[in-house]
Structure prediction request, 213 residues.
Amino acid sequence: MKRIKNIFSIGLFIAVISLVAIFAADKLVEKVASSRVYNSTKEIPYNKVGLFLGTGKVLSNGRINLYYKYRIEATVKLFQSGKVECILVSGDNSTENYDEPSTIKEDLIRNGIPSNQIYLDYAGFRTLDSVVRCKEIFGQTSITIISQQFHNERAIYIAKNKDIEAIGFNAEDVNVKYGFKTSLRERFARVKMLIDLLFGKEPKFLGEQIVIR
Prediction:
């Protein structure tokens, strides 16, 4: 009985610490990014490069991913407003049959963004990889990140810790029901991000530099 009580006490302690860590990480990221995220093209400052944080276009049920759809729309709006000149699409191309950047590029071109103003980063496996590679591979130290606000906030926090001046243009978010799992996952992602930064986690791949003209 005593052993069961001890196990319960340890489990409760771990649960409380985990909840505190999740809450603290969430508030810290929000605070750092609060003045750096924008919903309006009129208010957002100009940056030469917009960093599109990739995601899959189609869900497992065959429907279009709304996160994807709204990021495309936000990127087109930002480009057409003249607040960015080039789009750096960073996404996952980990297998021959899965290529986020190329799919995104096709849809951006279809929506009027010239092909020669779109650059592709095929090794954006995680948000940290995308942000760090934007500087180390593509030479950008001042960027506009394009994603939903929760994602922009985390990316901006990473950028700040990597000496990158970053702001975020918020794509439309999804409703609570549609985005519940993503919202929950984001809370844990923020804790993991802080741990990664603390221990100096690096992108999976770096490589030769690519010039954005």
